[in-house]
Amino acid sequence: MPTVQVTDLKDGDFLLDVREDDEWQAGHAEGALHIPISDFVARYGEVTEAAPQDGRVHVICRSGGRSAQVTMYLAQQGIDAANVDGGMQLWAETGRPVVTDDGRPGFVL
């Protein structure tokens, strides 16, 4: 399964956050698309509409387990996807911004 490190992500890379609503509300990466894994299959069309046509979908969760499942599913659908190793925990540990919906500083739940 394709995997990327948090440090390899650049501003503007497409990020899909598959954590649940309470985790997202506590804090997330600015600009990420949020589709909880529990809703993912039903909302799959939102990913294909929002994802860049010739770009990669970087999938993130708290630590990497749920995002790995979604990454495998996307790959089976023919979408270029990669799991973000270490998830939002590592995202925050490396100093990347974590925000709430209103732009205030957030935290990883």
Rg calculated over all Cα atoms: 13 Å
Low-pLDDT residue intervals, each spanning 5 or more residues: none
Helix content, binned percent: 25-40%
Give the overall form.
globular
Secondary-structure element order, as H and E? EEHEHEHEH
Q: What percent of residues are in strands?
A: 15-25%
Word description of this protein:
- The chain is α/β, with parallel strands linked by helices and 109 residues long.
- It is 29% helix and 17% strand.
- The protein has helices at residues 21-26, 44-50, 65-76, 87-93, and strands at 3-5, 14-17, 33-34, 57-60, 81-85.
- It has a five-stranded parallel beta sheet.
- Helix 3 links the parallel strand 4 and strand 5.
- The longest helix has 12 residues, at 65-76.
Secondary structure: elements and pairs:
Blueprint: E1 3-5, E2 14-17, H1 21-26, E3 33-34, H2 44-50, E4 57-60, H3 65-76, E5 81-85, H4 87-93
Parallel strand pairs: 1-5, 2-3, 2-4, 4-5
